[in-house]
Amino acid sequence: MSLTAPRADAAPGSRGAPPPRTPAQRRRALGLDRGAWFLLLPALIPILILSVVPLLYGISLAFTDSQSGRTESTQFVGLANFADLRFDSLFWDSFRIGLVWAVCVTTLQIVLGLGLALLLDQRLRFRWLARTLALVPWAMPEVVVGIMWRLVYHQDAGVLNKTLGDLGLLGLFGNGDNVDWLTDLALALPAVIVVGVWAGMPQTTVVLLAGLQNVPHELREAAAIDGAGIWRRFTSVTWPALRPVVLAITALNFIWNFNSFGLVYVLTQGGPAGETRLPSLFVYEEAFTYGQFGYAAAMGLVLVGVMAVLLTVFLRNRLKEETP
Amino acid sequence: MSAVTPATRRPRGRTLRAAAGRTGQYAALLCYLAFLAFPLLWLISTSFKSPQELGSIDPTWIPREPSFDNYRAAFDAQPLLRSALNSLLVAGSAALIAVAIAVPAAYVMVRNRSRVTRAGTGWVLISQMFPFVLIIIPLFLVLRNLHLIDSLPGLVMVYVVWNLPFSLWMLRGFVKAVPLSLEEAAAVDGASRLRTLGSVVLPLLVPGVVATLMFSFVTAWNEFFFALVLLKSPENQTMSVILTHFIGAEGAADLGPLAAAAVLATLPSLLLFSLLQRRLAGGMIAGAVKG
User: Fold this and answer.
1) Interface of B with A in 216-255 (CB under 8 A)
2) pTM attached to this predicted model
3) Ordered domains of chain A (ranges, CATH)
4) Distance from the B101 Cα atom to the nearest Cα atom in chain A, whole angstroms
5) ipTM field
6) Residue A207 pLDDT more than 60?
7) Helices B12-47 and A188-212: crossing angle, nearest 10°?
């Protein structure tokens, strides 16, 4: 499983059976002795102060009229923010865009990532080149990815218009003139989605590849000797073993993509006319441009809620399929 | 998969089919390579082009008169060096602190099963779902009360907490790989917990700790959202934020210096990532599959 070290004899800790108790482990508070608390606290305290407390604070903010730079004190307003939110069509537009973005990007990341992982699992030449290249987008700051694709999409100095022009394909996207990809109402969102796929596919590939390498080689060989074709071998040997990894990375990618901010902020700032304004950009503007902290927190809470529901439904359905 | 049995022992029809499959695979690989590489090459190419060339209507892959002028201009246009130092300082200290407190915590989480450590593991998973937009507003208010807005120490604190889940996740995998028998031997010899961690477990964890450190550094170096919200004055801003200043308010950008600065900002991450690629996949899978 692990590429880091063999761990044949380390199993007791991870598979149910408790590790043998040493004398020091017998004096406990909440199941931990003093030494363990001593080791745990340096991590626990910052987590509590800067992660748990803000989270709870953020949830409570959603029920107040907190604003930036106001002198009078913040009032508890109950569900008023949520009532307003129901009729905020701009927010729901943004929400819809966020869903389209997250679903498209995640699907393409998984499909293309799986394709690349299967290729990299073969003994092909230039595999090293692809492996190296696949790491680059992962290592790049998302701001740089955004800047880079701005250069690619640039109307006059961009390589995309030039290549399409050379191939005589520009007519497909308009009247044959250079296309301004990131400000065109119909093309901006697809253009941004391509960037999202480019930026996230490598990480997906690396995880899937590691998952593939856990599929026992003997199984595939046996299937090949029994005369199973490539497709047959994939569906009956590789896929069942890879499934849990695919499920996990799909769920994670969906969350990451839905929360994505920097890429689109740099590419379009949400434009043109809000066509690429992801929910995270919308909430950011509401909070830090207009200073509506309470209202923005309510939006954030709605986003988390919807996301949690979607993921539960997705994972439950998938898991049901698994156990017939 | 098709290379598993030697092609020579197969009937001819199969050999042909295998050859066709191989060609198809190479064609697919080529497409992937092109998709992954072309924006990078274009970025590098743009960074060496003169303003006149960038203004011309017929862009080329290879700059006609390549020069380093854009790189010089990038340093003049924005406080690039200052921001790089800020990024280095913030990312470096955040990574060091995060890993220093994550190592003991990960050790306890693996070796002691209790309600607290289970809650910790749950938190690691849930924190992956936090929408930053929900956390950033209260975080902003908390830090403002502590007078840590627009300050590098404030950002370091945020990054430490933000890096912790993944650091814990990776280190858990590495700790699990340490044979329990070694620790038992140390305990039998009368070594305290701290002593065991320091002199038995830690030396075996060094590769994992280094990998986690590098990953945390890269994450913090690349981070944009928190830095954008929490840092206001240009002399405090990190490189990611400074880069966006190259794009003018109305989206008109000075393309050459923009490309040059983008290349420069990528170099440190890229260097560390190339050193760390093998460990990273291992750590993620170890943490994920063995959970």
Assistant:
1) 218, 221-225, 228-229, 239-240, 243-244, 246-247, 251, 253, 255
2) 0.83
3) 89-322 (1.10.3720.10)
4) 5
5) 0.83
6) yes
7) 130
